[in-house]
Amino acid sequence: MGCMKLLHVHAHPDDESSKGAATTAYYVAQGVEVLVATCTGGERGSILNPKMESPENWANLAELRRAEMAKAAQILGIQQVWLGYVDSGLPEGDEELPPEAFARIDPEVAAVMVKDESKPKLSKEEIQTRFLEAMADEARRILDDGVVAEPQDIDTGLIFGAGYPFFMGGLTRYLDQKGISEKVNGKKFLTDDEITAYLER
User: Fold this and answer.
1) What share of the chain is helix, strand, coil (3-state, %, to 5)?
2) CA atoms within 13 A on the CB side of 156
3) pLDDT tens across 18-61, in order?
4) What's the CA gap between 169 and 154, in Å, rounded?
5) Are residues 31 and 106 in the same domain?
6) Of the residues 101, 119, 137, which one is the last residue of a structural domain?
7) Which CATH number is 61's domain given?
8) Same domain, 104 and 136
9) Quick one: 91 and 136 in the same domain?
């Protein structure tokens, strides 16, 4: 098996440090190649450190965020790319969003929109299928490696830890219903009999 790869998609520079940095560092230490895709430049962000408050820093906020991102990438040992969208900030009242604001982009395709006209563009359905196939593959890997004992552990973790919609029955159940599990792994995560037995426990 080749080198494992992990993709983090974050809205702003600094999210890689404030959201999941310890997890990122753990995977890097395990030899995983981690790529952070930063959707926006954080141009309309806030300066939370009073010592950094100055007219010059406000005027050069985008450059500061890029410098901070470069330093964070060095410390975490990751690769990083910019997706090129403009930070939408927190508009008030009737304030218009910038034309290239990330908030104007369809969230289902924003992180994987192809801007290079020489490359083929994917439909929403193709993008969704690719994401689901990757999830099915990763779920099977962590089961095979003993990271979790049962598919239900994956579903529970995503529901309580990542906000996965509980009314959909969990990720592995959804993958089974869509036929993704059988397409990628050759079998379902849980058969109907296994589901019945689990509910009768």
Assistant:
1) 50, 10, 40
2) 6
3) 888 888 898 999 999 999 999 889 888 888 888 888 999 888 99
4) 11
5) yes
6) 119
7) 3.40.50.10320
8) no
9) no
| pTM of the predicted protein model | 0.56
In the chain the first and final C-alpha atoms are separated, in Å, by 38
Check which CATH number belongs to the domain holding 163 and give it: 1.10.1040.10
What are the distances in angstroms from CA 68 to CA 24, 32, 65, 74? 17, 23, 5, 10
Widest distance between CA atoms in the chain: 66
Domain that holds residue 139: 125-199
Backbone angles phi, psi at 38, to 5 degrees: -100, 120
Total domains in the fold of the chain: 2
By the 10 Å C-beta count (0-12 exposed, 13-18 middle, 19+ buried), 15 is classed as buried
| pLDDT given at position 1 | 45
What ranges make up the beta strands (E) of the chain?
A: 5-10, 33-40, 79-85
Q: Are 105 and 113 in contact (CB under 8 A)?
A: yes
Tell me how long the chain is. Answer: 201
Residue 45, both tokens: 């962000």
pLDDT at 179: 94
DSSP assignment of 62-118 equals HHHHHHHHHHHHHHHT-EEEEEEEBP-----TTPPPPTTBGGGS-TTTGGG----TT
Q: Provide the pLDDT for residue 147.
A: 87
